[in-house]
Amino acid sequence: LLSAGLHSEEANSWAEALKPEQILRRVMWIAANTMNSQLLQKSTELLLAMVDSQKEAALTLIPPLVYLGLPELLTDLLTCEITAITEGIPAHGDVVLDTILQIGEALSLADKHSQELASDKKLFGLACKVIKISGKDEVGPPGITAAVLVANLLAEEEKLIDEILYDAKFLQNLLQLLPSASDDPGARNALWSVLGRMFDGLETSQEMQASKRELVSVLVSQSDLIAEDLDDHREEDTGEDEKIHFSKQSDIATFNKRFKAKIGTVSKMIHVLDDWIKTEEESSVQDLS
Questions:
Q1: Cβ–Cβ contacts within 10 Å for residue 97, how many?
Q2: Phi and psi based region of residue 90 (left: phi greater than 0; alpha: psi -120 to 50; beta: remaining)
Q3: Do the Cβ atoms of 112 and 153 come closer than 8 Å?
Q4: Percentage of residues in the chain with pLDDT exceeding 70?
Q5: Contact criterion met (CB below 8 Å) for 77 and 31
Q6: Has residue 26 got a pLDDT over 70?
Q7: Is the backbone of residue 52 left (phi > 0), alpha (psi -120 to 50) or beta?
């Protein structure tokens, strides 16, 4: 009922009713301390409704929630869920994990709090870890939500890319998420955005070849996924899809920018591969001589 109210025409009234600190503290306390999966799901869904409600309602609730420690609560909840999954302990399910990540995603889009969220390397690291375990059955859809959150945080703090630049497992699982994001343009753009930032860094990196070896191996082994994604969305990416309608000139500019970014990312992937092959060949020649 509360979640529905926050997405209704009466959202502002509901937000004002929920705004008192003791109410917000109670909801957050339940989310942080309950051992009941259903209660955890309901409390996190309510928190999501608060931060992702209609604009004015969200503006009413987000500042006090952040002040009361919502970002810290997110990292604690994510840590618990990820630990449970990695250690084989029964977790609360992918619905709860996905909801927690969606709360982070909503906060990462809040103008006055996105930078604060991006400054927390722990939250970024946990979102990346969700992607790295996204091959597990217990994770599923949250892998996509985590990728969107990672993209949003990187948009606020570019230096965070250093945390994953040479992480082959992260790259592998990120690429393996492409088919799952096929029908979600926003998620697909987020995945390509993260890939773009990774290969921006790799293209200019002066690290030793050994650091890039695993990444190159992943890129080669997953190249079919990249090709399939681009081929499946060729008309969409080039603007030839008749289903795409632009309401204003800025939409066209954004669309073109994203398309050029994807092409640029592929170009950088090829450059990294070519550079690695060239260096390996030079090394082989030196060894023979």
A1: 28
A2: beta
A3: no
A4: 86
A5: yes
A6: yes
A7: alpha
57-99 confidence digits (pLDDT tens): 999 999 999 999 999 999 999 999 999 888 877 667 788 999 9
**Per residue in 97-148, pLDDT tens?**
999 999 999 999 988 888 888 888 999 999 999 999 886 654 568 999 999 9
Largest CA distance in the chain: 79
Q: What are phi and psi of 138, to 5 degrees?
A: -75, -15
Residue 168: Cβ within 10 Å count: 16
Say if residues 197 and 154 touch (Cβ distance below 8 Å). Answer: yes
Chain-wide mean pLDDT for the chain?
A: 86
C-beta of residue 26 within 8 angstroms of C-beta of residue 81: no
Q: How many Å apart are CA 225 and CA 219, to the nearest integer? A: 10
What are the residue ranges of helices labelled H in the chain? 2-5, 11-18, 21-33, 37-51, 55-67, 70-86, 94-108, 114-118, 121-132, 142-156, 168-176, 185-204, 209-221, 223-232, 234-238, 249-288
pTM of the model: 0.89
CA separation for the pair 138, 203 (Å, rounded): 34
Work out the number of other CB atoms within 10 angstroms of the CB of residue 112. Answer: 10
Tell me the HSE value of 14 on the side-chain side, using a 13 A CA sphere: 20
Q: Rounded to whole angstroms, how far apart are CA atoms 73 and 204?
A: 37
